[in-house]
Amino acid sequence: KLEKVCCLDDAKVVCHIPWAQLGEGISHRILKDMIRAQKKNRTMKVFCFHGPESFVPEGLDRLLLHSSPTIKQAMEHWTSKQEQAPLDRIAYHLFNSNSG
């Protein structure tokens, strides 16, 4: 497989995102560019995905790492936490570099 983040230019091509490329593979380079721009007195614009746009529905790590829930069980968990649209995120992230 080609190990690069797909850009969804061709709907006929199945999207493949190599492990950690949405986080470490892209964000580190972008953050370096942003810091350089800030040093040149340029304005930085940052947007944080949160709430129902977050890449991490409440308890996703616990659901996947400490149990093997069915979809029904996972949805019951998210309903109890009032998590909105947990299965409709544009991406998911497990924070592998932060979880030891």
What does this structure look like?
There is one protein chain. This protein is mainly α. The chain has three helices and no strands. The model has no long low-confidence stretch (mean pLDDT 77).
Q: Which SSEs are present, and which pair or pack?
A:
Layout: H1 21-39, H2 60-65, H3 71-80
Task: Report Rg.
Answer: 17 Å
Count of alpha and pi helical runs: 3
Coarse shape? extended
Largest sheet: none
**Overall pLDDT:** 77
Strand content: under 5%
Structural class: mainly alpha
Helix content: 25-40%
Distance N terminus to C terminus?
A: 28 Å
- Give me the count of strands: 0
| Low-confidence residue ranges | none
Taken in chain order, the helices and strands follow as HHH
Please summarize what this structure is:
This protein is an all-alpha fold and 100 residues long. 35% of the residues lie in helices and 0% in strands.
Keywords, please?
single chain, 100 residues, 35% helix, 0% strand
